[in-house]
């Protein structure tokens, strides 16, 4: 016997500089609960405005369609659906099938907003590899370079991930690079999409001996994971990519070529984020995931993130209702 429940949620969020164009005030999405012969699975489906192509209305339609089919005992290939739908449903199914391990990787690369003291405090809580992520490309490229180099100089075992979201011209990117001491460049694990086009990013990386990672590129049609000089990682945001299986394929293609795969947040609630931490633990066990986004919210949803003190909103809270 199969049964399903569909909920909608809305949580206050302060996305700050994480989303460049739009400061989201509310994070909205759906929660599905699947029951199959006493086994239960939950999934979060939350398209990210400005990043996802599907709207909440599209998602609701797709979900209702899939839930009907599943309840009648049939199944359909998930990647025919929008990425957020495919990811959330595949999580719920993986919980039912018990293929998503319980253990999660809750040590994630802390996001730094430019305040060194805050980063020092966060890094002090880390026991393993010290890796932090800084957004760049929002202010002067020179300033970004000085700040990154200052962190690297001050914390000798620190590695940095930087994210420019394709915002630099080649000239700006070179200005940034000129501020990084040559003997510290290798401690920049990667810069995500430094320049306006992948072609310029490649040229920049090569000419300035810096490593890069693809993030936006991974979600472009016809993207292929391919080893190239100076490319150290691909960033996988499952809510923007698709089913767990689709993400596993990308991870395997990356690992086969010696490329790091970083599982990263699309600002899901703690429900989706804890599933991402479990997914990361299982499939990218040697890599710190990019999941430091829970604190953009004032509440957790249904499931607690290990170590978080944020209050937990449950099914009877004002933030979640059934539809
Ligand atoms: O990757 C991480 O460490 C955290 C997530 C993160 O940085 C992002 C999440 C969602 C939207 C983005 O602007 C941003 C990114 O560009 O990677
Ligand atoms: Mg990015």
How would you sum up this structure, described in words?
With 323 residues, the protein is an alpha/beta fold. The chain has two domains: 112 residues, 2-Layer Sandwich (Enolase-like, domain 1); 187 residues, TIM Barrel (Alpha-Beta Barrel). 33% of the residues lie in helices and 21% in strands. Helix 5 packs parallel to helix 6. Magnesium ion (MG) binds next to loops. The ligand O=C(O)CCC(=O)C1=CC=C[C@@H](O)[C@@H]1C(=O)O binds next to loops. It holds the Pfam family MR_MLE_C.
Secondary structural class: alpha/beta
First-last Cα distance: 21 Å
In total, the number of domains comes to: 2
Number of strands: 13
CATH superfamily of the largest domain: Enolase-like C-terminal domain
Q: If classified by CATH, what would the architecture of the largest domain be?
A: Alpha-Beta Barrel
Q: Any idea what the shape is?
A: globular
Cofactors, ions, other ligands: the ligand O=C(O)CCC(=O)C1=CC=C[C@@H](O)[C@@H]1C(=O)O, magnesium ion
And the CATH topology of the largest domain? TIM Barrel
Low-confidence stretches: none
Spell the H/E element sequence. Answer: EEEHHEHEHEHEHEEHHEHEEE
Query: What does the main sheet amount to?
Result: 7 strands, parallel
> Considering DSSP H and I runs of 4 or more, what fraction of the residues is helical?
25-40%
How much is the average pLDDT? Answer: 94
- Biggest sheet: strands side by side, in what order? 4-5-6-7-8-9-10
Q: How many H/I helices?
A: 9
How large a portion of the residues is in β-strands, by DSSP E?
15-25%
Rounded Rg:
20 Å
For this structure, what is the CATH class of the largest domain? Answer: Alpha Beta
């Amino acid at each position: 016997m199969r049964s399903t429940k569909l909920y909608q949620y809305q949580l206050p969020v302060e996305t700050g500089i994480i989303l460049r164009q739009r400061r989201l005030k509310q994070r909205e999405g759906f929660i599905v609960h699947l029951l199959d012969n006493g086994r239960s699975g939950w999934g979060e489906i939350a398209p990210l405005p400005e990043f996802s192509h599907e709207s909440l209305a599209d998602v609701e339609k797709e979900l209702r369609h899939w839930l009907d089919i599943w309840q009648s005992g049939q199944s359909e290939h998930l990647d025919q659906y929008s990425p957020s739908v495919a990811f959330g449903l595949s999580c719920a199914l993986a919980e039912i099938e018990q293929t998503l391990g319980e253990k999660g990787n809750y040590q994630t690369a802390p996001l730094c907003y430019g305040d060194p003291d805050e980063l020092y405090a966060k890094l002090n809580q880390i026991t393993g590899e010290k890796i932090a992520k800084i957004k760049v490309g929002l202010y002067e490229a020179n300033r970004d370079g000085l700040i990154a180099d200052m962190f690297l100089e001050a914390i000798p075992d620190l590695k940095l991930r930087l994210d420019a979201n394709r915002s630099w011209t080649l000239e700006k990117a070179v200005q940034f690079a000129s501020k990084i001491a040559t003997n510290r460049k290798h401690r920049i694990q990667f810069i995500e999409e430094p320049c306006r086009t992948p072609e310029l990013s490649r040229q920049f990386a090569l000419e300035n001996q810096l490593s890069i990672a693809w993030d936006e590129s991974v979600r472009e049609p016809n993207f292929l994971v391919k080893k190239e000089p100076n490319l150290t990682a691909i960033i996988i945001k499952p809510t923007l990519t698709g089913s767990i299986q689709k993400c596993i394929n990308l991870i395997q293609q990356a690992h086969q070529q010696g490329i790091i795969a970083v599982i990263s947040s699309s600002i899901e609630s703690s429900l989706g984020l804890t599933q991402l931490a479990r997914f990361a633990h299982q499939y990218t066990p040697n890599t710190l995931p990019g999941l430091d986004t829970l604190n953009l919210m004032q509440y957790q949803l249904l499931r607690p993130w290990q170590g978080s003190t944020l209050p937990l909103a449950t099914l009877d809270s004002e933030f979640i209702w059934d539809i």
